[in-house]
Amino acid sequence: MPGSASLGPEHPVSTPAQVDAALARAAEAAISFARQGGRVRGALLRRIAANIESGAEAIVERAGLETALPEARLRGELARTCGQLRLFAEMAEEGSWVDARIDLPDPHRAPMPKPDLRSMRRPLGPIAIFGASNFPLAFSVAGGDTASALAAGNPVVVKAHPAHPGTSALVGAAVGKAVDDAGLGAGTFAVLFDEGIELGLALVRDPRIKGVGFTGSRRAGRALMDEAAARREPVPVFAEMSSVNPVFVLAAALAARGPQIAAGLHASFTAGVGQFCTSPGIVFVESGAAGDAFVSRLAALAAATPAAPMLTPGIASAYRAGAEHLRAAGAREVAHGASGDGELGVAAVFEVDAEELLASPSLAEEVFGPSTLVARYAAAAVPLAFARTMEGNLTATLHAEESDLAAAGELIAALEGRVGRLILNGFPTGVEVCHAMVHGGPYPATSDGASTSVGTHAIERFTRLLCYQDFPDTALPKELQDANPLAILRMVDGRWVREAIATTTH
Amino acid sequence: MPGSASLGPEHPVSTPAQVDAALARAAEAAISFARQGGRVRGALLRRIAANIESGAEAIVERAGLETALPEARLRGELARTCGQLRLFAEMAEEGSWVDARIDLPDPHRAPMPKPDLRSMRRPLGPIAIFGASNFPLAFSVAGGDTASALAAGNPVVVKAHPAHPGTSALVGAAVGKAVDDAGLGAGTFAVLFDEGIELGLALVRDPRIKGVGFTGSRRAGRALMDEAAARREPVPVFAEMSSVNPVFVLAAALAARGPQIAAGLHASFTAGVGQFCTSPGIVFVESGAAGDAFVSRLAALAAATPAAPMLTPGIASAYRAGAEHLRAAGAREVAHGASGDGELGVAAVFEVDAEELLASPSLAEEVFGPSTLVARYAAAAVPLAFARTMEGNLTATLHAEESDLAAAGELIAALEGRVGRLILNGFPTGVEVCHAMVHGGPYPATSDGASTSVGTHAIERFTRLLCYQDFPDTALPKELQDANPLAILRMVDGRWVREAIATTTH
């Protein structure tokens, strides 16, 4: 991407003074924004979505120039981005996500009276969000991390990804205008630009930053985790980093529908030129004729795949290095697409004996790009051993008939402990934005396996619990008042209800 | 405490081989225990409580010898411990805590069919729990951390606190017998003994440990946080460490009921010889006659307080050093109780100009023991500045009349950002075990301000989210099956319901 070497005069690298000013404004805005109700936050998110839609033509054009992603993909991603903003707006407006809990008092309890206790989730304060290279809209300036952090009431300071500064500036202006029009403090949102790592590290080290959202490489994510953990006041980092998304094609499924699985798998690992976090990088297929036919089919599809531009020269170069590493570590390249120039991503299928994969963990490292590694096994104990010892992953996929499933109990149990999402007879790419989605998983898939960066659960990341003891109704947030004026679902004395509380003695 | 120098022949320090064996068994038990239903986990917790009650006489006697805590306190703590176990048993049995979410499929959606997605909380795996010195029962071998980790389906490996090894062994045997009687794997629970820090560090470093629970000093907690963050696969640490629990006595409240507040405050900071995490260590009182009278009252109460044995010689010595530090840093000791020998904790009241406190942050460090520091101020801007810049705390307390509250908006807003629990017209000691309790707060109060170590929210700490995509009903956990056989509260397509799902096409 030619523009990546210099941001150019329109988007100069933010100066330390600009960074400091943005953080000072964010810290100042934190208390007032935290006190805004869910309707105000929801309205802000809807304004942001509307402004992005108004500017869609310019945003898509600029993103196309900066990322080489096709227009249809970018239009789809813009729609998804606005959908995410509106989904979090709904969450904020409805309000039950704060997990309000009320334990009513008992002044007559012996030996000690029971106090009135009411708790809910509250925002953390200014959050640093890092734009991702591979989703210039949906995981960038106004992406899911920003939407969930704002929905929860946190000011956001975005570090734009240097691969798409112009897109980031356009979206940043759309957000800034929404903040202005909503009459919120200027510190509610800022976008900063740089070409290296210093600005991001400075954000994570700054005591005014209270949480971090990141999508990117394992190395960069780990560096941010380590910085945040080393602070005087450590803060949570929600980093989504690295995943090989293993696929297990079980015997009966292979026999019943090998060609269809191969076709679906090919579409999945080449989707977006393999630049999705959920791209399937390792596929377990049994040895023997059926498995051979599956690999041949996959090879033929890969060989016929046109090379395509990758997001940045750095990503293209890392992809070539990853493929070279697989070869050096003993994987056989069974097919690749027509070679293009050095900037293009060429689809490839590699094959290895699954026992070699178990013996050489470096073969199981993520190769970010349009390739997959087929691991051939003779005994089901081998993929089971892999599942038990593999690093954390965003997803694992099983292709299984009923008879396969009946025999796969141990495999499923092992995978349940190592991934965020288990898929049956589907493909891992295509992450639905909904309430039940988990785009998470143990390290190194994410820094915090308890969370998800896609779906409405993501709003919980940038919050903490706060309890009020014996506060009068008038001094409580609306979410915790007796009358339940927001009509949210609350746990009252252990029961989840939407009813108001009859006036108590407190 | 004489026994602390050597565990003695009954409770020898666990050998590396014993530690390794316990971890191997825990790792083996993790998958099967995770698959046990909530009723099995609930029954285990109830058996543990019953066994502790059966052994109450011996446990209380031994704990009295090891901790010097009075019998009535220990009997109360034993009852609380069993209450906690049964509360988590109820949570496990009822089952809704897993936060089950179901988004139903739509095979006809264009351009892509919508998959069937179902998610819930699942256990992490073996958890290392560190017994606390100051609660030999309620925060120790079978305390809240253990109860919540087991309730969520995690095997537990406890490192007993060396200040009460005999108590830990008795309670450990009660838990072990419950595990046996329930027919669960021996790896479900283990208790290990040591006299130093090596065993604990080894546990936190071990890749088989997937999470850590700790209550203790800031230094030890931070060391565990740093070890866990430096692992190849970092794991969450839930450490509850350090808190000065500031109290703000506002003007009208001081005028209306100064003597009662002083009496309550004295009872709170001397409760348990000041060895509670929520002991109020700093009290803001205005300058002038009413404030002087308040301090005199507090001083008279402290002077009349008998010295009392502390938990260990190390804690007594750290308390004396903390008081010495306050004096050296410029605080005036306005009163102390009758001096005892070096092993006893002597109540004390210190006083300082609040502006000096702001200028010397080391005055605001926790002194673990029966003292409090009164910070005198002339302008309300001074306590507000403290609230805005103070480190994270478990609690903050306001004493306020209605007129005070009306003027305290900024103070409350600042405190909301720095504590886990805000108390009005009460005292911070006495932590109710219930659904709405938050015994948490930003660092250094805890390592993870999003969580609580007391109350039912604590069960969420040792879990993560897992999503199943397009799994048939028979392969799903009961919590996610169409029929909702456990009748739990679930979010189905965004609505919280207990109803079953009509059979779908998946």
Q: Point out poorly predicted stretches of chain A.
A: 1-6
Mind telling me the C-alpha Rg of chain A? 25 Å
Beta-strand percentage range of chain A? 15-25%
Assembly type: homodimer
Helix content of chain A: 25-40%
Number of strands of chain A: 19
Average residue pLDDT of chain A: 95
Q: Characterize the overall form of chain A.
A: globular
Major sheet of chain A: size, sense and barrel closure?
Answer: 7 strands, mixed
Chain pair with largest interface: A-B, 76 and 76 residues
Total number of helices of chain A: 15
Span between termini of chain A: 64 Å
Name the structural class of chain A.
alpha/beta
Please, could you describe this protein's structure?
Two copies of one chain form a homodimer. Chain A has 506 residues and is of the alpha/beta class. Chain A is 39% helix and 17% strand. Chain A contains 15 helices and 19 strands. Chain A has a seven-stranded mixed β-sheet, sandwiched between helices. Chain A has a five-stranded mixed β-sheet with strand order 17-2-1-18-19, with no helix packed on it. Chain A has a five-stranded parallel β-sheet with strand order 5-4-3-6-7, sandwiched between helices. In chain A, helix 6 (165-181) links the parallel strand 4 (156-159) and strand 5 (189-192). Chains A and B meet through helix 1, strand 1, strand 2, helix 8 and helix 15 of A and helix 1, strand 1, strand 2, helix 8 and helix 15 of B.
